[in-house]
Amino acid sequence: MKPTEIALLGAALLLAGCATPSLPQLHAQTQELRAQRSVVATGASRLATELAQPLDADRAVRVALLNNPAVRATLAQLQAAQGDLYDALRPANPTVDLASLDAAGGVTRVVWSVSQPLLDLLFTSYRRRHGELAMREAQQHVADQLLRLERDVRQAWLQHAAATLRLRVAQRAAEAAELAARLSQSYHAAGNISELQWRAEQSLASEAQLQLAAREAGELNTRTPLLDLLGLKHDQQGLSFDERLILPAAMSPDIAALATQALQQRLDLAAQSAALEIAQRESRHSRRWRWLPGAELRIGSERETGQATLTGPGATLQLPLPNTGAGRIARAAALVEVRAAELAAQQLAVQNRIAQDGALLAIAGRSFDVHARKLLEVNQRMLELTAEQHNFMLIGSFELLAARRRQIDGSDLWIDAIESWWRAFNDLSYESGTALPVPATAAYVSAEDLP
Predict the structure, then answer these.
(1) How far apart are CA 382 and CA 392, in angstroms?
(2) What three-state secondary structure class fits 53?
(3) Angle of CA points 429, 432, 435, to nearest 5°
(4) CA-CA distances (angstroms) from residue 23 to 28, 78, 82?
(5) pLDDT tens for residues 356-366?
(6) Do 425 and 246 contact (CB within 8 A), yes or no?
(7) 450, 394, 378: which is closest to 176 by C-alpha?
(8) If I label 438, which of 35, 97, 226, 418 is the partner at 20 to 30 A Cα–Cα?
(9) What is the structure's pLDDT at 427?
(10) Rounded to a whole number, what is the distance in angstroms from the first to the last CA of the chain?
(11) Distance CA 283, CA 330 (A)
(12) Parallel/antiparallel/unpaired status of strands 95-103 and 107-117
């Protein structure tokens, strides 16, 4: 084989040996991107181990990352990107043409050639960088989808835990209302209260039962979406939830700093930046090489019976006329504008949502500390004072039961305030592109803690 043939085939074979990261490597790198922005690390955790204990918010996130079918579909995007990178690191396969032509007189002509697209060899560095950027974009996009799943699981777990606590409140309210209805019936039978008072207590008892039924439906309606995110069936054996809510703690995050940090940390913004860089590179490449739309190198050989073999290189050049590549350049430039506009719009949306979530967190914190907590304390004290007056026979049992109902209603509003704070906290944590530290407090509210 002549030197020109060796050079052509050797270049193609050398490029074909470019290594592509393995799928486990890509998964590990992507999970590391997610873990850097989360307080939950999956590590070597197993599904059975996680399900063996009541699921709090963090454990629910680990179960979802291990078991949600959508995670498999999300990670499959890495395999598709791996295939794209493989193709980008390798030139097009050489083309071999072979012909044997028989002529009169027993003369045979044998012709063969090996051709290779020249641009694949010239643009090796460009294609490699393009493929690496596309892989980085895919990894950042996948990691962001996993973080979105974590945010969704936390919000779904929060809604379910709050709904369960509200159900317990409704059960206690229904019990108190039923007790008041039975007591009023006895009092009415004894002639101590009017029928109007008796019917009023019966009405309140019926309202409490309707509210209880609504709370039962609400608890069920929050359980199903959570199970969907966890990838679990409704009859999962041994499944239980840790339904305690951590009480909000005072915190005043620097919203301006979080907004600045988000522009650097958000993986969806990073993926869009990579997409913009890819579009810009394509646009520059199209303009720079518009006059070379296509070229091909060829090594050929021809031999007739009884004649010497003729072997030599050749080339084919595609002329840039009448198509000068203006259409390709225009499309590439338009794509740059689209990607730049999408990135700018997303950056603006992120900063606005951070400002909104920060304001909601401040409102929820103020509502909990100033109003909800005070309401709970005041209602508890009112119940104690009412009980004292009842013990001294200064007021009747119905006034005591009314104070108890007011205390129970206050508990419902208290749970609302806790849920609102955590909803804003979870949203702000995701929007900022970092794992906000969970308030360092050991104070929880559970069904047993409710008055």
Answers:
(1) 15
(2) coil
(3) 45
(4) 9, 7, 7
(5) 999 999 999 88
(6) no
(7) 450
(8) 226
(9) 96
(10) 92
(11) 9
(12) antiparallel
pLDDT score, position 30: 94
- DSSP summary character for residue 369: I
State how far the Cα of 331 lies from the Cα of 353, in Å rounded to an integer.
Answer: 33
Q: Domain ranges in the chain?
A: 36-67+134-290+339-437
Query: Which residues of the chain fall below pLDDT 70?
Result: 1-18, 104, 440-442, 451
Rounded distance, CA 34 to CA 12, Å? 38
Residues 238, 217: contact at Cβ < 8 Å? no
The whole-number pLDDT of residue 8 equals 47
pLDDT at position 194: 85
How many residues in the chain? 451
- What is the token pair recorded at 24? 């486990």
Predicted pLDDT of residue 440: 65
Query: Could you tell me the sign of the dihedral formed by the alpha carbons of 262, 264, 267, 271, in that order?
Result: positive
Which pLDDT tens digit goes with each residue over 53-86? 999 999 999 999 999 999 999 999 999 999 999 9
For 36-67+134-290+339-437, CATH number out of 1.25.40.10, 3.40.50.300, 3.90.1150.10, 1.20.1600.10 equals: 1.20.1600.10
